[in-house]
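$ fold --in a.seq
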Amino acid sequence: VPGLEAARATGRTSAVTAIPGLRKDVADGDEAQRKAQLQDAVKLGEEALRALTARDDPNGDEVLTVRVAVASIHHGAGNYSQAESLYKEVLTRRSAYWTPGNKNILDLKSNIAHALAAQNRWSESVELLTAAQVDADKERPLESDARWAVANRLLAYLQQWSKIDPASPAAARIPAQELAVEKLRAARQRATRCETARLACDAVNPINR
């Protein structure tokens, strides 16, 4: 894995940008090869993170970005508890200077919820996403991509939880969440129509630009 080998040697964020390509390569292999590659990626990613943390500010954006990348590798390798821990550490540090409804904070909470769900900790996952949705509703516009992502993941997890545990409170919450998602969908469709109309107007009347 050349990018991660370079990260181990240099401890720089740019070397870890190979992760998306790595994950695609891993997905294309057979199961045994995939597991071996992921474990290798976990080892190299952790070594790169240690090297970077030793030389840079552990609260710096560069280190935190790498920490998120390594967390994603852990999740892909099935190390859900480790992924959860890394995501939570980044969330704690970034919450010191970003608001709860910041897109990056919402993404981190969604990633943590994903790791919790993978551990069958559905109640915690849904509780976290519910809180994230409240924060998103306060700070993000209706057509926001981050708000849309949180609402849809919450709906999906409520549906999954209700199937796994019919006695859970999830089923009772699904109708309201479906309405919330439809509200956002309508807003996004309106925004798209407005943007399409604006572009068409600009094409006919270039002076408007």
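$ fold --in b.seq
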Amino acid sequence: LVPGWNGRKEPMSLSRRPFAFPMYARLSRGFRVIKGGRRISKSTNLSARQLIYTSLLQRVSTYIAPHQEHVRTYATKLREMERLFRYNVKATGFRNNLEFKEYKNGSRIELYRVLTSASAMRGKFADELLYDEYQLFDIRLEAEIRQLQQTSKNPVTIYSGTSTTIDSPLEARYQQSSGGVWMMRSPGGKFINCADPELILKMIRPKGL
């Protein structure tokens, strides 16, 4: 059980997370940039996305983050989501570690830390590359990592993170994208995606926004 919109504990359902729907939209190939603030459940929703697509399709999805603490946090969240996932099927003879998971349909989920070298990625294969905390990533390593998708029929890349400066790798990818913005209304009917801190403070009430 997880806290719902009304604060009560209820079964977790992705349908109650409309703000994350763009993260689940399927890409046949190409890239998507997910640029959001802190604590908007990016890890929860990205791990759910990985579980959904590796269950529905035969895919090798590789998660990449620049620091081990990011990988560890995501691995823990992925394990929690596995326990909540209604279509999770435990099969004998397949590895199911924190950072490496195999599934009966041939799919795999792999987690790696890449900070100063991509040597650990050599000789591997991936249909999907999922970069987390991409604003901290060394973009010079990306060409080597992209070789993992060289023989994939449907290569997909997801860039996710929080822009901390206007010259970060994440911001550069966002400028190359379509630049779409997903706006959500609060339960009171107001838009809460606002860059004006003074206006945000005025909007806060005892019951929230």
